Amino acid sequence: xxxxxxxxxxxxxxxxxxxxxxxxxxxxxxxxxxxxxxxxxxxxxxxxxxxxxxxxxxxxxxxxxxxxxxxxxxxxxxxxxxxxxxxxxxxxxxxxxxxxxxxxxxxxxxxxxxxxxxxxxxxxxxxxxxxxxxxxxxxxxxxxxxxxxxxxxxxxxxxxxxxxxxxxxxxxxxxxxxxxxxxxxxxxxxxxxxxxxxxxxxxxxxxxxxxxxxxxxxxxxxxxxxxxxxxxxxxxxxxxxxxxxxxxxxxxxxxxxxxxxxxxxxxxxxxxxxxxxxxxxxxxxxxxxxxxxxxxxxxxxxxxxxxxxxxxxxxx
Amino acid sequence: xxxxxxxxxxxxxxxxxxxxxxxxxxxxxxxxxxxxxxxxxxxxxxxxxxxxxxxxxxxxxxxxxxxxxxxxxxxxxxxxxxxxxxxxxxxxxxxxxxxxxxxxxxxxxxxxxxxxxxxxxxxxxxxxxxxxxxxxxxxxxxxxxxxxxxxxxxxxxxxxxxxxxxxxxxxxxxxxxxxxxxxxxxxxxxxxxxxxxxxxxxxxxxxxxxxxxxxxxxxxxxxxxxxxxxxxxxxxxxxxxxxxxxxxxxxxxxxxxxxxxxxxxxxxxxxxxxxxxxxxxxxxxxxxxxxxxxxxxxxxxxxxxxxxxxxxxxxx
Lengths: 316, 316
Prior knowledge:
Two copies of one chain form a homodimer.
Chain A: E1 5-10, H1 13-25, E2 31-35, E3 41-43, E4 46-48, H2 50-59, H3 77-84, H4 95-109, H5 114-124, E5 130-133, E6 141-145, E7 148-151, H6 152-158, E8 165-170, H7 180-187, E9 191-196, H8 201-209, H9 214-219, E10 224-227, E11 230-231, E12 234-235, H10 240-246, H11 253-259, E13 266-270, H12 277-282, E14 286-290, H13 297-314
Parallel strand pairs in A: 1-2, 1-9, 2-5, 9-10, 10-13, 13-14
Antiparallel strand pairs in A: 3-4, 6-7, 6-8, 11-12
Helix pairs in contact in A: 1-2, 1-13, 4-5
């Protein structure tokens, strides 16, 4: 058994689903899922890490299959009572989900790191694969819009991605360290491939790439493959295509690929975008065309297996 | 309409029920319920005020009729999930109840006072009577036991009142101020009677009496009546009788009355303790013998009405 590790970078629902597919194919010791922390925020005193939670709930089989986030069969009695008290209800906190935030918050207050807490929560949920925050230091994403700067969740949830974006910042990123398990894998030369899961490039993956050392790792001689969240000129989920348009970039797999120029060696695109494959190859990229829309666990797993095989081919 | 106010001092379930009875009889402007804050604590980052919540839930008709605390028909999904995560579950937080703690915690963090927050929560729950914390400053009760000092909720909930008590402290009481609405009523000479509801004298009422100015108010020329939580040598609810025994005091209405010597002018005892009335009167106390066990709303209201009439007789 190899002690080499495939590093998966993941943000929200699409990233979580593909990472879960990878976990169906790879044993725990051969996969490390580094998760975006730019969405993390403190709300009503609770420390909430939406992407880590989405990945954990997806891996544990608890995730709501409709929304992709939150817990299947969740109840909302705390939210209903909070609404009755005139409290803030724009960020929906399910009753069971609240336990995750309470436990994380109290452990952070007790001095534990986000990495250690994520490890604890994962174990409690029966997850054997390694899910890690990209950093233990908060690096909040700031969404720059025509109306001014917005905290990520204000933009994403409260304002439902309505304001037109002009850019993004990851506050404190330059001073943040990769989380200890990621740093250990990086400095130990244990990572032999990286897969950028189909997550929003601007607000799910770029905040991961902003952590010092991560881009350098991806630009080293390991094969890096990015799976496109853009399918047929739109995003499967979330505001990726809307953001591209607002930034003056046509939402296409070509422009998606361009976003990772110098980082990705290969790109995985959906069958509906097959016509773009030739142009991508002309631009020096390796291209895998397959079914990328993870409507079922079977597709989730086959996308992971195909992507891993494709990535292995790129290995020098 | 008088601008005079009856001040009710209340702690847990018995106190909340009697205070609610008083609210059935008196209009909002003639009653002020000053609630114990010695039980208040911070748990998992949440500021929890059990006695204020019990009084509010009782007044709003939400209180669980079986336990007297918590919310009727409560669900426990957050606790079940927390248990699954290995979190602390010794203090049971219902899903709806969590909303109260979240809203209070975030308002405290935003700089609001406990008085203002309690006013807000009361209004949101449709409560017109004034429920106020005795102070806005935390004055945590410390239970002194043969095994050492214990934080109140560790003694009361985690250890189920098992350790034998040797005494009680109210940390910071001497430097605490009465809450603004209480101070305003006190200094304005608006309080024309006080009723000590049937709450635990040691851990529900004494922490109220420990706030500077409260004892002086009760020792002034207003009539003060204490309703005994000791009935037939035991406590209707909670550890009052157990505490008395551990302190070497026989749990009787006579010894209960003795606890408030110099403070209470009159005492209300249950019919089962009628035989003790004469001794109490010999000791200079006015005594009302009535049905004090509030098994129904009717008794709750009649106890309140009888106690108010009795108190009015004591007025100079």
